[in-house]
Amino acid sequence: ELGIGIVPYSPLGRGFFGGKAVVENVPADSFLHFLPRFKGENLDRNKSIYFRIGNLAKKYNCTSAQLALAWVLGQGDDVVPIPGTTKMKNLDDNIDSLRIKLTKEDLKEISDAVPIEEVAGNRDPEGFDKASWKFANTPPKDC
User: Fold this and answer.
1) Is the pTM of this model over 0.85?
2) Where is the NADP-dependent oxidoreductase domain (predicted)?
């Protein structure tokens, strides 16, 4: 609507779709311990989403992370994910997500596998929600 490109924040869910390690055990020294989605019962509930995406990834012969990035890329030509990557192997895997071409039906199937109402816990620590994009006020495009 405003002609602005979008760079989604943390397109791999802060590492959630990066691999089983986060789902199985959040590292003790990780910032993730401060995030409600990665705590106790919330993490337990969110694991089902991880496994759903993992099963869909098999259908597309890719990893969960690659499918997540392909889904983000499929949201529009003005959407460009920039996942934080600390290992060369992960960088190569992320680049390989460009080979995955999703149809509108594929995008819907993936979206349906992650109903927002099933995601347990807030994205940010308590108090950070007021700094969210949800409260941004952008002028109209014609200004």
Assistant:
1) no
2) 2-112
The contacts of residue 46 (CB under 8 Å, 6+ apart) are 16, 37, 119, 120, 121
- What is the rounded distance in angstroms from the CA atom of residue 43 to the CA atom of residue 23? 7
CB burial of 65-96 (b: ≥16 within 10 Å; e: otherwise) equals bbbbbbbbbbeeeeeebebebeeeebeebbee
How far is Cα 56 from Cα 114, in angstroms, rounded to an integer?
11
Question: pLDDT band at residue 137, thresholds of 50, 70 and 90?
Answer: low
- For 21-31, the pLDDT digits (tens) are 667 777 778 88
Pair of tokens at residue 53: 């995406």
* Domain interval for residue 35: 16-125
Yes or no: say if 39 and 33 are a contact pair by the CB < 8 Å rule. Answer: yes
